[in-house]
Amino acid sequence: MSHTLRARPVPPPPDTDVPDNLQHATLRLNFPPSYVIVGVYRLFTDKSLYKPAWDKCKHGVQRGAVLGFIWTCMTYDVQKRVVRVLLNHPSSLFYPQRMARLSKTASELSEETFLGIKLPFNMTTYVTAILIGTQITAILTFFLSRNIRIARRRAWDQTVASRGKGPDFWQPYVEEWQVPPVVEQDLRSHVVSKFGLWIIGVVVKKAVIIPLSLYPFVGTVAVAALKCMETAQYLHQPYFKAKKMTPYEIAIFTEERKWDYRMFGFTAALLEGLPIVGLVFTVSNRIGAAMWAHDLEKRQHHLTSLRVSQGGSTSIQGTEKM
Prior knowledge:
- With 322 residues, the chain is mainly alpha-helical.
- The protein has 12 helices and 2 strands; from the N terminus they run H-H-H-H-E-E-H-H-H-H-H-H-H-H.
- It has helices spanning 23-29, 34-45, 47-88, 97-102, 123-162, 187-212, 218-235, 237-242, 247-256, 258-272, 278-310, 316-321; strands spanning 113-114, 117-118.
- The protein has a two-stranded antiparallel ribbon with strand order 1-2.
- The chain is globular.
- The protein starts with 22 loop residues before the first helix and ends with a helix.
């Protein structure tokens, strides 16, 4: 009987009595998207962060920018004509019918509206710009693929070092909830579940995202919403590795903070989804994720000291017995 009954998850009490050194961190932790802003701010203002990243990527950016400019000059008119044909012939397989009403007069700026809002550009120009921007992003990514990965990894390490922390700062995982949620521990079920989610993701992206991407802003928002959890977990992989967390501990940790991860991941994916400049945000998001991990770890240290002083357990197993 005890195997069929599961205790209801009990989160930790509200942060009402935290030490002075955690006051600002607690405010940020209560609104995880703020770390995306922190990452952008630090990347653009901290020379120890933006200079190494730029030095590593500048040659790839220069080569990609030149090729992208040439590609735009050679193909812009052709792509714009193709887009105009598609917008004026809504029989295309990937053409959303609602767009027909938006682009019926695609050559007239003054009559273009989206959801009742007059647009400063026509739909043909918008869709063409998105296509060109996506293609230039792909060109830049080709030239930057290796170096930008190195820049992201270094951005994390340099952010942690800038806080004056070394490898010994990351302590073993401490369970914060009084009764943690139950997650699937069976590896086979986990793999099947992940594979099923991957299949669903592919279908959704092909059937929904491609048509939605023709709408102003909607496509970017939809993609960010679908990628939010995946993006946030990916950005925190160095944190899980530094704490030497097991897959079960990672599953518990992310389940307890699933809405925090979704909010942070949505904001991060939204910026990364922007054409061209999104590549910059892939670096700043790594900085923001490191800052978030730093504050999470400070709270873990605080809880460890509290548990030790009270004679309690810091492990998942010990917490479940409480």
